[in-house]
Structures are given as C-alpha cells and as structure tokens.
Amino acid sequence: MSQSYRLKNEGLINRNKEIIFKFNGKKYTGYEGDTLASALLANGVHLVGRSFKYHRPRGFFGAGVDEPNAKLQIQLNGHSEPNVNATEFELVEGVEASSQNCWPSVEFDIGAINNFLNRFFPAGFYYKTFMWPKSFWYKIYEPFIRKAAGLGIASVEKDKERYEHKYEYCDLLVTGSGPAGLSSAYSAAKNGAKVILAEDKPRFGGSLLTDDVTIDNLSGKDWADKIITELKEMPNVIVKNRSQVFGYYDHNMMVMFERTGDHLNDKPKYTPRQRLWYVRAKEVLLSTGSIERPIVFGNNDTPGVFLSAAAKEYIKVYGVLVGKKPLIFTNNDSAYETALEFKKQGIEPIILDTREEQSSELIDSAKNQNIQIKFCHAVISANGYKKVRSAQIGKLNKEKTGFENLQTIECDCICVSGFWTPTVHLASQSGNKLKFNDDIDAFIPDKSKQNEKSVGASNGTFTLKETLEDGFKTGFEVSKNITNNNILTSTPNSNETKKSAHDKFWCSPLPNGKNYKRFVDFQNDVAVSDIEVALREGYRSIEHVKRYTTLGMATDQGRTSNLNGLQLVANVEKKIVPQVGHTTFRPPFTPITIGTIVGREIDMEYMPTRKTPMHTWHEKNNAVFVDAGAWKRPRYYKQGNESLFEASKREAKNVRDHVGICDVTTLGKIDIKGPDSAEFLNRVYTNAWLKLPIGKARYGVMLREDGIVMDDGTTTRISENHYHMTTTTAQAANVLSHLEYYLQIVWPELNVNVISTTEQWAGAALAGPKSRDVLAKLFPNLDVTNESLPFMGYMEGDLFGVKARIFRISFSGELAYEINVESDCGLYMWEKIIEIGKEFNIQPYGTEALSTLRIEMGHVAGPELDGRTIPYDVSLEGLLSKKKDFIGKRSLQKEAFNKNDRQKIVGLVPTDKKSSIPEGSHLVVDKNAKLPNPKLGHVSSSCWSVENNNPFSLAIVKDGKNMIGKKLFAVSPLKNTAIEVEIISSHYVDHEGKRVRS
Amino acid sequence: MLNINCPYCGDRSQKEFAYGGDGTVKRPELNKEVSDEKWNEFVYLRKSPRGKHIELWHHIAGCRQWFKVQRDTVTHEIFKTAKMNEEIK
Ligand SMILES: [Zn+2]
Fold first, then answer.
1. What ipTM was assigned to the predicted interfaces of this complex?
2. Which terminus of chain A, N or C, has less C-beta within 10 A?
C-alpha cells in the first residue's frame, strides 16, 4: 500500500510501527504518531466530507484545533463517535473512520444539489424558509433539515468506556507548551512554585517543532525536549500532554480535558478513556499561541487549500506532503518558511505575495533558492471540484480592489497565510475584555479580571526572543509572589529569522462578472455574500450578524473565521474592526465528550444509595423498593403473584386487625441539646413546648416565615435539656438547615445545639391492636401498660441486650409504638420483633400500606403539606398557640389566609363506593361544564380504605368546612375519569382517637 | 465554580456550600407589633444589587456554619467572608 505523499526521512512519526485503518470502507496504512489527517494525506486522500449547508466537497484545512472541515464519524472498539476532529485524532490500529454529512457517499452526494441551488440558501435561510405553515414543521421541514444537515450520528448504545474526574490545586497553571509556556513554566518551577504544564497535542514544543530556530544552541525541538525532561523530574511539576484546558471559570477554576486512553490500542485495566481535571490555580499563564488566519478567495473551500502553517506541520511533524505542486498565497513572511520546507524536499513552490516587491531575511533566502515569487499577486479562485487542479490568479491593482491581468496556473494545493490571530479564547472566558492591536490586525488580552496573564503569541508577541524573555520573566515574577523565593533563571540566547511587516490584505476581490463563493466560515458554510445579505437586511450588532448567519457558531468557534468576518462587517459598514467589536468566547474551547463531563457519576454511582440497616432482610422477604430521596424503602412485600394493590391492602388490613412492623429508619432525626432547648422549640413549633415533661413526646408543626406549613413530626423530651426531634423523610435536611439558621443567625443568644442523628438510629414502627402484646414480650422487664406508657409516652429499655428507645406514637390511628436502637443493632432488633411477633400474626408493611393507614385516619403528609397550605388548610389550626409568638405566626394574619371560604382538607368517597379516585383530580360542580371548568379543589391523596372496604381520598377544597355532605365530581383529564364523590370528614377511621389511647 | 473562604474551615469549593440570600435582612423581634408593610418587606422583598452584596452562605457539606460573604454580583469576586458576629463594612 502506497503512502505516496510520505517523505523518506522527515517527521517525528514512528516508522517502525505501521498502522492499518479504514476510511470510508477502504484500507490504508499510516504510522504510529500520525493523526488520522496526516495518515490520509500521506495516502493522497483529501476529500473527507461535505459541507454543512451546500454539501460542497471539503478537505483538510488545518493540522490541529484550527480544522473546520475534517469532522469524521469514528468506529472503534465497538462504539461509534461523531464529529471527531481528524487533525487531532491519533491513529490507532483498527480504527474505522467515515465521512459525515453525505449520502450516499462522499464522492457522490445528492445533497450537493444545494450547491447549485444556493440562491435558495442565503443567510438566515432557516429563519426565512421554515417559518410557516406551522403544520409543515414536524412532517416536512424538520426531517428535511435533519437529513440534509446530518452531522455525525450519536451512538444509541451505552458507552462502556470509563471516564474520570480529578481535582488538583497548583500555584501556576500554564496552558500550552510552546516557547512561552515552556519558559514560564520552567522559570516558575525553578523558583519553587507548584506548576502544572498542560499541552493539548501529544508532543510538547508547540511552534518549536516546526520553526527553524535555535535556543541555547539547540534546535527548537531539542531545547523543548530538554526542558520537558527536566520539568518531568521536578517534584513540584505536573506535565501533561494530550490535555486541553478548555474552560476558564470563576476564581481561577480551570477545566481541562485529558485524552488518557484514546491513543492506546491496549489500555491497561482501569485506565480511563478520558479524564476531566478541575484545577484551582492561584495564577494562570495563558501560552496558547496563535492560529494562522486564511485569506478569503473564490472557492477557497476546495479540497487542497490549506493553511500554510498546517502544510509546514504536515512536512515537519508527520513527513507528509499536502501536494507536489504547491502554490503559496500570503500577505506576510511566515508562509515563506513553508515554501522553503517544500523546497528542502525537492518540491518547486510558487509564492504569490500580496505585498510590493521587498526584501527580508526570508524573502531573500527564498529568492536565493530560486523560488518563484510573484509580488502584488493574489489567488482569485481555486479551480477543481473535489481537489484543487489549478488556480486563477491575478496581479492586484494599486488599490488592491481589482486585478490587472488574470492567468491560470497549475497547482495541486494552495497554502494560504493571512497572518496570525492570537488564541485569546481562555483570556476572554476569564472576563478579560480584549483590545484590538492594529499592528497585527487582531485582538489581544487587555486588563486581567482574574489572576491570569497571557505570554507569547497569545499576547501578540510574535518573535521568539521577546517571547522567551517575557516567559522567563513572567514565570519568575508570578512564582516569586507565591513562593517568596528569589531564584532567577536567565533567558537563553536564541536565533530566528527576522520577518518584515504583513499586508492587511484579507480578501480577494471578485473579477467583473464572476460570482465565486468565498467562504469565511467553512464549518458553518458562511460565505462573504451571506454576511453581506445580513448587513443589507439591517443586522448591525456583530452578535446579531453571528446568530443570523451562524458565523463562528460551529464547534471550531470560528478559530479561522472570526477576524475575517469582523473585517468584512467593518468594510461594509465603513467602520474599523474595534468598533465592530468581537463576539463572546465561551467554554469549551474544543468539543469534549459527554462521557467526560459525566465521569463516574453513572448508574448506581449517579448518587449515593441510602439503605437502612434492615435492607438485607427486606430483600430476602421479597420487598419491592421505592426511592424516597436517596433512600430505598420497601413499598410492599410481595407474596406469590400479588399485585401492589393486593399486597398493600393485605399489609394495611393486618395492621388494623393484628399488628404490623414498618421500617421507619428513614425519618429525619435531630438531636437537640442545651439549656434553652425548650424555648427554642417553643419558637420553632406553632404549639406550646415549655411545659413538656421529661419522658413525653409531643406532635408539632413548624411553619416558614410566610405562614406555610414546612414540616411536622414528634419531638420527645429525653432528659432535662435533651430532646429528640423527628421530621419527615423528605424534609430532614431542610429542617436541620432551618434550625441552624435560627440558632446561628436570628437567636444566637439561645444556648442550643442541634445535630442530625438520622443515620445513628434504626427505627421500627409497631402498629396495631396487638402491638402492646409484642412490646411486652420484647421488654419483659418493663411495665408497658397504658398507665405506665400512655399515648405520647417515652421509655428506655433493654431489648435482649441492646439499649432501645420506645416512643408511643402513632401514624396509623392504631395503638402503636416506635422502637429505636443504634443503627448497628437495627437488623437484630427487626429480627427479634419478627420472631416474637409471629404468634400475634405480625407482618411487615411497606410505604404503600403506611400511606393507606395515614390517609384513612386523615393524617396529613407530603401531598397535603405541599408548600401551599397553611395550618388551617390541613386542619392543624388547633396547634396554633395564641399565647406566644413563633416562626411564621405574623403571616397568618394575612387577609387571604383568613377568608371565610378558605380552602380546607376534607375526605372523599365515591358515591358508587367502587371507583378509586386518581390523585391530582380536580373537584368540580358540573363534570360537563364548558372549559375552563371552575375548580373548587384537588384530590391530594387516595387509598383503598381497608377499614371500610371502599376507596377513600383526601382533598383540599374551597370552603371545605361547609362542604361536608355535598356532592362534587372528581375529574381527571389525564386518566379520562369523572367520578361523583361525596364530601365527608377527613377522619375516616376512629373519629374520637380512642384506639391510639387504648 | 466559586472558591469560598469559610471563616471556620478555610478555602473550599462552592460545591460544599448552600446559598442563603441577602445577609443584611434582620428578622423582626418576637412578640413585638410589626406593621403589615414591615412584615411584607421582611418576608418577600429583597434587593438585587449590581455589584457588592453581603450575603449568607451555609457550609452544609462542612462545618454547617452560616456565615457572611461579601461578593460582587457581576464579577463574582469575593472581597471578604466573616462569621455571623463579625461586621463587614
Ligand atoms: Zn466551614
């Protein structure tokens, strides 16, 4: 297999390791160290995709993050990934790449007809074309856009790869390992600073790998290698390649994307594919370099058109020629270096320079080597459809607004250079307002908003000498402020060719009668004419022009198009670029995978799972679990083929008839201690707490300051200054924060401490007429009679060697107890209760039966305490003390809260005694009334009453107190039901509360 | 992600904290008459200043202390953090 564009000796690839890969179904070979792009170019493959809008053939344009075209679909190790940048993807054995956005193939693409219909695809064509009629959207427009636009295809398979997150702290983060990054990292590290040096590419050195320079009498590359070797040996330095710092967030939080495993064919076990680093850096040095910008000309998107620096990089790093008949088109000196590299390989380039004939070190050396140079010349258009075959060129007139004589010259590639644009994305992200530098026609960082500094080309410094001086100095100064060390590293001597000034020429004019497409933004297919249309239609703000034309909005963030776009707007508007301003750069600088963002937080690691100490028992006994926050709670214990409905009915009935046991460990528990505890509870709860005796529990309700019920629960006085508070499972964390807020901020004078003990205690509720019999056997030495342990009483006891707390409280309306033991003993307690309860027909019950029991007795819970109800609404107004003040009391005076027909909780039974009422149903007078049907209230909780053997619901309804006995309809448009209901008391079981006191 | 200096624990990532709103609001005293207007102001009305703002943060995944933070609402710069019994001027 050929690789006919591969040079014999040049490049940093490993020629001993050949790699076989596939592109669009065809086999090719490359070498280890290649990118997908360099390997394809070595094989003479240029056509890699079709453009987004017009489906024009596209080839490689850059050699790294600057690439706008070569986004491929990658198949590797059984999974598929879209939009992979071929110029960054390192070649690995077995990879299969394919073009996106073309059907049926990249060679023959039906969508390319768009190219010939392009007058129908002007700027803003999505906005204009697909506006109406609305009904066309789903069936015609959207499928069309999706099919035609068709970027890559996201995999629907589960991603089996491993991704990780890592947190790191350092004194100095240096982003980029070119001369600026190496020198500043080195001098800071030598001065004792903790340094992280991040390089996006696999190889360190940046421009030193391709530029013909010497530092310290070494070649650029050798010097870079030497510095990196030294840095790697220093304990205070982390050196990372394949690591892109893509986001600059608040307080110097830098986020970095490391490709840990993508380049490895055999990843060691547990090596992640990619890793996301969160780096909090005291200082950040931005040494991100610069990106060459193109000159715009006709059909400049034809495959075979390259940035000139990219062409040089393909030669120097990969040993690959992007063409054998190169035309170099430039407005500055740096493209001469590319020409000289071609010449070195025995290739004869032709240089078109837009400038007047002049002399400089580089120009002279090109002349000396007999390279043909045409000054005052420009490329008018590239010829060729799928590959450059020739170029139409012309001599520029004096004003450079037109051409004097046109000619066609043969070439197989055009290497274009329109000077350099500092990579200021991270600086801009940090909040640095950029300023325009006239000398380089580009934006550079201005005043820092955070602790950041730009060094070298990213700061508009384009000579090696100045860059090194600035790097060594900045690294030293920044580190000195952090470490207080004073070890100064001197700047090494360096050698480079001097360059003369560039020409501001950025776009070739169209010759008379020609209407070539001249692309500004390749990835989003935005041409000069599109931007002109937008301006003609009245768009002025650059942010609007950007959104209307989609200029710079693709994944390459307009790296090669932003400035030319601004130039164009400035020209048409007769402004200068700084007046036009620039659009905002946002993270990520380069696309990153969703997998990396997610990291290990998938499946069961998505959030912690909280299990009670009795969890294993529940599992063994066929519990079906339900999520309650992070907790797993048994919803019911399935016997045989029972349904949820049958099981919960059986479990609830068993409580009413005999005795049941429920795991209530998940209830929030807060320990309250201190001499002012009673006073504090008295302010937090709505009822009176000052006179609660030791050994007694009390039910309490707490409000928010706006008068809305926040939570309810019981609090028990364990000893003189010690209370045990319970909260609902859902509100446990909020209640604790609420208590801390009042203790620390509002009433710091109260001597009270609170702490969560939810996980310290395992809890079992024992409910039903036989519960006392079970309790007596559990604690044979205790007197648990009604006299000794009455309703709302508390005792401590010994449960077969384990210290236990016994609360006589009820959530079911039955005689009931709650037993707490230390969590470690929870399972022991549970098994003892089950064993002893056997003779009394004990059965475990889950949350479904628990709900049934509490709904039947009219005990409010989450669905009623929904953040919209005041105590009156849920019939808790009896707990509002008139004698004392408490949190939220003042709000209860609000007029709306005291209206005569204020909503109130009621009970509902269907008049047919059969139809169960969906929760969330609306209560209306007339089920057939015209919409919107006036709503009187809603159904909050529904159950099957095991006591009365028919459906029963709780509802909150307007003027509830006067509605008892009336009939309404409960309508649920979702379930398509309209059930006639009778309004009754919310207490459907044991109205007088005899059982709980029996 | 902000970096917040808890007066009890030191520099910690924002992840560990919960935001608690305007730190200058004073709850009316218990058992005192409060006009509707004053109460309404306390419960519902908050300023949303552009620039310096003294606010409350709660170190929920740390020491569980509430404390004051003076932060610029535009730049997120944090000028000062203080315990509840300390003043920020
Ligand atoms: Zn703290």
1. 0.98
2. N
